[in-house]
Each structure stands twice: as C-alpha cells, then as structure tokens.
Design brief:
2 domains; 10% strand; 63% helix; Heat Shock Protein 90; 417 residues; single chain; 11 helices; 5-stranded mixed β-sheet
C-alpha cells in the first residue's frame, strides 16, 4: 500500500483539479491521442517497409479524436464514429496498435461508464469481430494470425472492463453513501423516539409518585383534623404517618429529578448531588411497606403470594410495583371501601398481579376507560411486554389483572424509570 500511495495522491489531485472542467480534460486527452497517431501511422513489422502513406491514418485518427469531445454526452455516437475510423484504418493496411486504436478505446471506456454492461459488451464484441475480420483480410501480410486475433480483442476488452469496473464502483459508493445517510436518519429518528419514550416514562413515574403520596397525605391530614380535639394521641400518630408519607414522596421525587439531571449531564449540578447515592429502584420487595402506608390512610391491604417467587428483571419488578401502587391509590380515591387485596401468582415465565376491592364506586369516580392513572398503567404494562385488563367485577368492586413476563423482552433494552 505505501508504494501505491503517491500514485493515488497524484490521481486524486488531478481529479480535484480537472474534475470541474470535463471539456478541458477531453481536449487534453484528444490532443494526446492525436499526437500518438503520427508514430502509430508509420509503425510496421520488423523487416517490412511502409506500404501505405502515413497521412490517411493520421487524418482518420484526427477525426476520431475530434469526436471524443462529445463522448460524455453521446457515447454511442462516439463509439460508432471511432469504430468506423478504426475499420477504415484496418482496411488501408495499417498495423493496428494501441496508438491507432486509442480513440476507440477511450470511447468504449466512456460508453461502459455511462451505460450498462450489456450495451458496452455489445459494442465491444461487435468491434472485436469486425476489426479482427478486417485485419485478417487487409492487414499486413507478414503479421502473425495470432496477433491479428488477439490484438484487437485485448485492446478493446481492456477499456470496456475498466469502464464497467468504474461504473460499478461508483454505484457501490453511491449505495454506501445512501445507506450511510439512511442509517444516520434512522439513528436520529431512533434517538428522538427514545427521548419521547423516556419522557413518557418519567411522566408516568411522576404521576404515580405524586398521586399516591398526595392522596395518602390528604387522607391522613383529614384524619388528623378530625381526631385533633377528641383523640389527640391518634391525631399525633396520624401526623407522624403524614410526615413519613411526605418524606417518602420527596425522596422519590428527588430520585426522579436526579435521573433527569443525570441524563442531561450538566457540569454545574446542585451542590452535594454527586455525593448523594441514588434512590434504589422500587420493586415488589417494598410491597409490605407500600401496604402499610395505605393502612395509615385507613385502607387495609392484604397481600397474598402464590407459587415460588423468581428473580424478576428490573423493568418487570418496577412495573409490578407501580401497577399495585396506582391500583391501590385508585381504590382510596374512587371506592367506598376500607379493604383491598393484592394477589401475586408466580409461574416459571409469568407474573400475574391482581388487585381487587369489594367496595362500590364513589359518585365522583371516573370510569375504567378514563384518567391518566389507568392510561399510564396500560402504557407501563405494554412497554414491559405484558397484558392488563381492568373493570368492575360481577360480585361488586373493581379488579385490575396484570400479566408480566418474568424477564423484560429484548426489544425493551431501556428499562423504565
């Protein structure tokens, strides 16, 4: 490779210099080929004298060189004219060498570059057949038959092959460039899609955290107000639970906002943010704590586990926790009951989470198909590769049934927040 580097550099420099001036390039090539026609018209076999004058060969070659000025725009016409001139030169008895066939070779190269392989091969093989036959009939008498056959074939196949290779290489580079542009557009679209998905996940998390803790805080604050004068001890205990609920809400909000700051990679973060360990991602291991928090708000939650618990992926574990949290929050907001049941059924490949309550809906309760909480639950379960169904039970109350894969699908490489 080092040995070919200087030649490549010279070629690239010449292409950059003359690539914007094709007419100048064609004129230089035509002039150089015309200059070669003078020695080409007087070349004979060793020991033979020139049997024809030199000037007809130069004249015919000059016509061929002049036609090369249009070989880019009219490659077929250029090949036809240079082919007729080369045939006339062969009929006059000249020795067909590369010096006289140069214009035809350049025209064939341009034809192979500008058209398709079939067209280039048709012109090339037709020229080889005609020139070989003409050279065999009218060529120098002492020329070996093998040279009469191989000479035109070699000189005409070479530019045709080079032109075809150049065209294929250009097509390959264009295809590579198109693939690179498509990949870049796809990468940008994928990045935008991931940003939208991340924003949706963060919005769902913020909704779940705020809705859950604010509902509990509202219920606990009302209990404190009612028991403040008549039952001060109970009011004090409820106020302590209220403080715990607000503290937990602040911790989860801080974790979510900290994740946003981490994604933005801002160098000037808040003081102490780098030293504060991130809040652990909630999962089913915190289900007893979650149930107890609702107990402080007056909702008794029963947790039932069936089957052998299996290790869950982070996305599945978080999704199951958020589904239970949102479903229980909806119970406190929209159901006239003080009890709820959470049932976890573990199977080898599936986790089924069922949240039920036996109370009737409050008058202001939204339907099962409205509300951001229910929409968020559906989106969470869909992103985790699971299924969810929810609705009123025939025996009364409301039920949310979620089926989640034990491991998140491979397509969800980015886990929910």
């Amino acid at each position: 490779m080092p040995a070919s580097f200087p030649m490549t550099s010279v070629t690239d420099a010449a292409r950059r210099r003359y690539g914007d001036h094709p007419r100048v390039t064609d004129a230089v090539v035509a002039a150089a080929l015309f200059a070669c026609s003078f020695p080409g018209s007087v070349i004979t076999l060793p020991g033979d004298d020139l049997q024809v004058p030199w000037w007809p060969g130069v004249l015919l070659t000059g016509v061929s060189c002049a036609v090369l000025m249009w070989c880019r725009r009219r490659p077929r016409i250029a090949v036809a004219v240079t082919f007729v001139c080369a045939t006339a030169i062969a009929l006059l008895g000249y020795l067909l060498t590369v010096l006289l066939l140069g214009p035809l070779m350049v025209a064939l190269y341009s034809l192979a570059v500008g058209t398709n392989r079939r067209t280039a091969n048709t012109f090339a093989f037709t020229g080889i057949a005609v020139l070989t036959a003409t050279e065999a009939l009218a060529g120098p008498a002492g020329e070996p038959p093998l040279f009469k056959l191989l000479g035109p074939a070699a000189w005409l196949l070479l530019p045709t092959s080079l032109g075809t290779m150049t065209r294929l290489r250009a097509a390959y580079l264009d295809a590579e460039r198109a693939r690179a542009e498509h990949a870049e557009r796809t990468r940008e679209e994928e990045a935008r899609r991931r940003v939208v998905e991340e924003r949706m996940r963060i919005a769902r998390d913020l909704h779940d955290v705020v809705a859950h803790h604010l509902v509990l805080a509202n219920l606990q604050a009302g209990a404190v107000t009612r028991a403040l004068h008549a039952r001060p001890d109970e009011a004090e205990r409820t106020a302590a639970a209220l403080a715990g609920s607000t503290s937990s809400a602040l911790r989860e909000l801080r974790a979510t906002v900290g994740l946003l700051r981490h994604h933005t990679d801002e160098p000037g973060g808040t003081a102490g943010s780098a030293d504060t360990p991130p809040e652990p991602t909630p999962g089913l291991d915190r289900l007893p704590e979650l149930a107890a928090s609702f107990g402080d708000a007056g909702l008794a939650v029963t947790v039932i586990t069936e089957g052998d618990p299996r290790p869950l992926s982070v996305g599945t574990d978080l999704t199951a926790y958020r589904i239970v949290q949102e479903a229980l929050t909806n119970v406190t907001k929209h159901a006239a009951t003080h009890t709820a049941e959470v049932r976890l059924v573990h199977s080898p490949h599936l986790l089924t989470v069922t949240v039920t309550n036996g109370g009737d809906a409050k008058p202001a309760s939204p339907t099962a198909d409205c509300g951001y909480g229910l929409v968020g639950m559906r989106e969470r379960v869909r992103s985790a590769g699971g299924h969810i169904r929810m609705g009123h039970r025939s025996q009364g109350g409301f039920e949310v049934v979620t089926e989640l894969p034990v491991q998140s699908p491979a397509s969800g490489a980015t886990e929910p927040i």
